[in-house]
Amino acid sequence: MQQFFYDGQLRRYLEQFARMFSGFQVEYGRNIAGKNDTLVRVPVRYGDASRQAQTIIQDNSANNMPSAPLMTFYISDLSFDRDRMQNPTFVSTTSVRQRTYDSDTDTYETSQSNAFTIERYMPAPYKLTIKLDIWTSNTNQKMQIWEQILPLINPSLEVQTSDSYLDWTSLSIVELESTGWTSRSIPMGTEDAIDISTFTFALPIWLTLPAKVKKLGVVERVIASIFDASGDAINAVTNNDLLLGTRQVFTPYGYQVLLIDGKLQALRKQQTVDELNNQLAPPDSPESNLMWPAVVGLYGTLRPGISVIALLQEDGTEVMGTVAYDPLDDRFMLFTPDTDTIPANTLAPINAVINPLTSGPGEGLPPAAVGQRYLLTENIGSFVGPYDSAWAGSAGGRLVAVANDIIEYMGSFWQVVYNSRSDKFPVDPPVPYGEQPVIDPSVQYVTNMTTSIQYKWTGQSWVKSYQGLYPGGQWRLIL
Amino acid sequence: MDSINSSMPRLSLYRPYRSKDYQFIDRTNSEMYTVGGLDIYVHKYLGPILDPEQNNTPGDATLPNYNSTNPLFIEDLLLLENRDRAYDNDVYIMRGVYQQQDIDFDLTQFGLFLNNDTLFITFHYNDMIDTFGRKLMSGDVLEFPNLRDYNPLNTLNPRALPKYYVIQDAAFAGEGFSVTWLPHLWRVKATPMVNAQEYQQIINQPFMPENIWDNGNFYPQGEIVNCGDTYYQASTPVPPGTAIDAINPDTDLPYWTVITNPNTVGDSASTRNKDLAINDALVVQANVDVPYSGYDTTKFYILPTVEGQSAFAGFRADQTTPRVDTTEGGDGTTPQDWGYTLGYMGGDAPTDSTYAPNGLPVTPGVSFPPTPVSGDYCLRLDYFPNRLFRYNGKGWIHISDNIRSELDWGSNNFTQRSSFVNNTYTVPTVDLGNIPSRQSLSKLLEPKADNGDQGGNLPPNPRPPGR
User: Fold this and answer.
1) Chain CA centroid to CA B393, Å
2) A156 and A201 share a domain?
3) Do both A67 and A169 map to the same domain?
4) Which residue among A40, A245, A474 sits closest to B317, beta carbon to beta carbon?
5) Is there a smaller number of Cβ atoms within 10 Å at the N or the C end of chain B?
6) Which residues have CB under 8 Å from B220's CB, separation 6+?
7) Which residue of A36, A118, A163 is the best one to mutate when testing the B interface, meaning the one whose CB has the most B CBs within 10 A?
8) Mean pLDDT of chain B
9) Which residue among B50, B161, B319 places its CB closest to the CB of A63?
10) Given this model, what pLDDT does residue B325 score?
11) Are residues A197 and A230 in the same domain?
């Protein structure tokens, strides 16, 4: 069964035609100077009424009098206009972007919303012939109507059936083809038929198929199954080609974002933080009154769990994650990173970053247990002289490590499992004390299980891998 | 034989004058019409309506300015028609006879007409002259009380719908000639009357409940009565013995309220009001479909761009995703024009104060704001059409004109039809006060005291600047 489609195209032509000839008046009254005459409106209506409708109009009574003057119109012909035919298989493609619509106020906002690709099939040209019959009760009345209408049509008037910007069939003209002064014989003889004059108009119109709006189907697919062919959700959300241009990417002014503990805070361009990205410690959230809804509202509507923020890394890659407003504080957005965009750990996770000189197992740290791993911020121990008993383990071994090393408890002793001074792993034999260390030049990643912060070994120091401050230009919002 | 023939009068019923035979036959005919005919109400045509104001002012020679109402006069000597007809306020009742016939409704584009609904009615000639004062003629209106419709579809009609016919032709009836060769009957050809200019005096007669006010009656609230030429409606229950203009002591208001615009024959018994209502509905829907000329682009978003970057293309699906290091957006950047929606008569509605791309704020006024910021918009109301400017940091750049127009008949619309035809503005003069701006070319600025046919000393309605 073919899908039903009807847009009332011919009906709209008739309505606009009726409007075109509405509002004309004739003058009643015997007044030489033309003052204080009664002006009487000439109604316009469709001429091919059904018998029942006309019976209702006339009150189902033979005594109900038809009224003159009166104009009626009807379609006398609708034929294909071969001369105006163009490429019949042509499809026009255009892309538009809408403003956000506020259904509460029934108004459009200043931000952008959906994007659509519109395909329009070549409409078919037709010539619509409409006859306008004018019934008048005397010649003077007829002259008044003709004189008001005819100067307007020279030889045509524009007619518009919709104000849709993309409706390329909406504009046509009403061209006067012929006129007939009277339907009566002259002189009228013994008959006393009503006097009807006729204008015949031709309208070169277009009848069109419905347009194809591309975005709707795509959006439904994204919402229902937000994965691309490879099962990659983030790519499905951000791939502009895949979404046919429906994604919107912005640089919200020069604002910075600060990622801490899975939350993104928007900061103004001048704002500073206490811990830089090249430091191990996470920064504190600075004072700010910049609210995410205000920032996002400049551009559109945030779709929780679908909208994405991408954080540009030094190597050109991006860490992406879906975002949603923090229900407790508008200054923050909850950031759920896509694990595929986060650098993979090259080292087993650590329990904490510690200063071995100020804390140790059972002394500020949990008692030593197999598999505990710590990233050290200071050197500890030496191969000569006394050693720190706190790090001796049950076997009483000597721990010698330097800042940036990672140590692990092996059951009875602590061992350096990542030697930042050498690319050998494990370290065997250790670099003799006092010799120039060999710095590990490779990039390593490890996650702190206590803070969930991933650290990156740059070859010189440990820094926060992707958490931290992103100045304007190093992050983008994808609504 | 010759003597006999010469002494007897010739045998002939013909008489060149109205003899006793004629009178006998005529009275017999009259009685037959009285017995067998029906009452027909006749609205007598009196002549063209007089000009109530300009009786002595010479006018168009083809439109004589008569000083009395007379059926001898013709209103328009060029077109030879009487359009504005005066009818006698008195209604004459005459007996007539016509042949009743079956009729069909003929559905035309102007409504249902009764097919073959042409009546040929005969009247007794002398009775007609005695009653009517003259012969029935074309233009007289007949009302048939036997054809009243007591049950039209609309049950709210205050009375039965009357049936009117208009006489088209009149002559002696062939069957009305007696053996005296003199006529006794007048035959008229009548067709149904329509609600037209010619019959406005009949059409505009009140059509209200037939309820003559009686001082002795009790009237419930809402009752309508007729007293003299005026209709009244009871605003409260009216006790017996209350004068028509009495004041109700309980409310200090009159018992009766005058009905200033009573329902007319045309209101109830013609299609005019329904035709107008149907027309109004068409215009309303047409206005919904196209409230303004041109195209509504308010729903579309224009991507802001910076100097030197085209804004026409907008953002398309086949374009590269803008990145943070491109020039998309940014503080103070607003669209420099209507972008891809630029075209034939686009933009917001002309009454919309936020007439700017993306609905961004606009400062309307007759001068530019003093301390603009780059990207600000200003709508200059002193331009016609209103003109939109954008400040680019150096100057105000013209973006567009607010040319979308309402399509009704207002004088402020941006259509030539409104500008020339629906032009209600006036022009001040030093001697004639305000004269109309719209004047006929044929009588343009004629050196007459009233400035020709166009009039002067009108209430001021100056044309807005720029129009």
Assistant:
1) 57
2) yes
3) yes
4) A245
5) N
6) B234, B237
7) A163
8) 83
9) B161
10) 40
11) no
- Rounded CA-CA distance A42/A34 in Å is 19
Q: Is B147 on the interface with A (CB under 8 A)?
A: yes
Cβ atoms within 10 Å, residue A426: 12
Q: Could you give the count of Cα atoms lying within 13 Å of A192 in the half-sphere of its Cβ?
A: 20
Residues 6 or more apart in contact with residue A170 via CB below 8 angstroms: A160, A161, A162, A163, A164, B290, B295
Query: Closest to A165 (Cβ–Cβ): which among B57, B103, B300?
Result: B300
CB contact under 8 A, A133 and B149: no
Residues A244 and A130 in one domain: no
A134 and A199 share a domain? Answer: yes
Nearest to B358 among A67, A110, A250 (CB): A110
Query: Which range (A363-367, A398-402, B18-22, B385-389) has the least confidence?
Result: A398-402
Q: Is residue A180 part of a domain?
A: yes
End position of a domain, from candidates A175, A205, A235: A205
Could you say which residues from 412 to 451 on chain B have a Cβ atom under 8 Å away from some Cβ of chain A? 417, 421
Least-confidence region, from A120-134, A343-357, B66-80, B436-450 = B436-450
Q: Tell me which chain B residues have a C-beta less than 8 angstroms from the C-beta of A254.
A: 331
Q: Do B112 and A66 touch (CB under 8 A)?
A: yes
The answer, for B453 touching chain A at a CB cutoff of 8 Å, is yes
Residue A159 lies in a domain: yes
CA of A249: which chain B residue's CA is closest?
A: B322
Please answer yes or no on whether B59 and A32 come within 8 Å at the CB atom: yes
Please tell me which of the candidates B163, B275, B316 has its beta carbon nearest to residue A45.
B275
Chain A interface includes B93 (CB < 8 A) = no
Q: What is the mean pLDDT of residues B325-337?
A: 53
Question: Based on the domain organization, do A162 and A233 belong to the same domain?
Answer: no
pLDDT band at residue A217 using 50, 70 and 90 as cut-offs = very low
Residue A78 backbone phi and psi in degrees, to 5: -145, 110
Quick one: pLDDT at residue A45? 95
To test the contact with chain B by mutation, choose from A65, A92, A111 the residue with the greatest count of B C-beta atoms within 10 A, namely A65
Site of tokens 């402020």: B412
Instruction: Name the residue type at position A48.
Output: D
Tally A–B CB contacts below 8 A: 303
Q: What is the pTM of this model?
A: 0.71
For chain B, how long is the longest CA-to-CA vector?
143
* Residue A232 belongs to domain spanning: 222-248
Assign residue A22 the CATH number of its domain.
Answer: 3.30.2000.40
Closest chain A residue to B69, measured at CA = A30
Of the candidates A59, A107, A244, the beta carbon closest to that of B154 is on A59
Look at residue A264 and tell me if it is in a domain: no
Asked if B346 has any chain A CB less than 8 Å from its own CB, the reply is yes
How many domains are contained in chain A? 2
A148/A76 same-domain check: yes
Angle (nearest 5°) at CA A456 between A454 and A460 = 150
Task: Enumerate residues 228 to 267 of chain B having a beta carbon within 8 A of any beta carbon in chain A.
Answer: 266
Report the number of secondary-structure helices (H) and strands (E) in chain A: 6, 28
What is the helix (H) or strand (E) element at residue A352, kind and residue range?
strand A352-354
Can you give the pLDDT at residue A31? 60
Put simply, the answer to whether B324 touches A36 (Cβ < 8 Å) is no
Specify whether A190 is located in the same domain as A237.
Answer: no
Task: Please write the tens of the pLDDT for every residue from B204-229.
Answer: 999 998 889 998 999 999 999 999 88
Q: Which residues of B touch A165 (CB under 8 A)?
A: 295-297, 300, 341, 343, 346
Q: Are B340 and B313 spatial neighbours (Cβ–Cβ below 8 Å)? A: yes
Angstrom CA distances, B364 to A110, B319, B353, B376, B393, stand at 18, 36, 7, 11, 19
Report the percentage of chain A scoring pLDDT > 90: 30
Report how far residue A442's alpha carbon sits from residue A445's, in angstroms, rounded to the nearest whole number.
Answer: 10
Residue A400 domain-assigned (yes or no)? no
